[in-house]
Design brief:
2 domains, two-stranded antiparallel sheet, mainly alpha, 126 residues, 57% helix, 2 strands
């Protein structure tokens, strides 16, 4: 429980301080809940990392979230997919974007170490 002991406009200042703490509390509670969930994944062996690395990452993410520095907002998948192809030009870029849309064949998984996307483009003989 928090108590305020101020003489300068104590009612207003105390209310402001406690309101700020109340607003931060749900974020802290959410960060703690996320941490417990991540630790459960680490302990169950469902992570793609070693248990020690998984726990370290979970602790680091909790510390960053409590400081307010963790941004969970990843770019939407279509934006991310376009960014992957941004450095290519012409037909290579078109083929890359087609693969990112799910066209062609997909092999592997993140758990296996990577995803291989393949498309075949037939060109007329010269």
């Amino acid at each position: 429980m928090n108590h305020c002991h101020f003489r300068i406009s104590s009612t207003v200042l105390c209310a402001a301080l406690l309101a700020g703490q109340a607003l931060a509390a749900p974020n802290h509670a959410a960060a703690q809940a996320r941490y417990r969930q991540e630790m459960h994944v680490c302990d169950s062996g469902q992570s793609n990392q070693s248990p020690a690395t998984c726990r370290l990452e979970a602790r680091n993410a909790l510390a960053e979230a409590v400081k307010g520095g963790l941004n969970n907002a990843a770019p939407p998948y279509p934006v991310n997919a376009r960014q992957r192809c941004a450095d290519l030009t012409g037909a290579e870029r078109n083929d890359c974007e087609a693969r990112m849309r799910g066209e062609g064949e997909v092999q592997g998984s993140v758990a296996e170490g990577g995803v291989l996307r393949t498309t075949v483009t037939t060109q007329p003989a010269k």
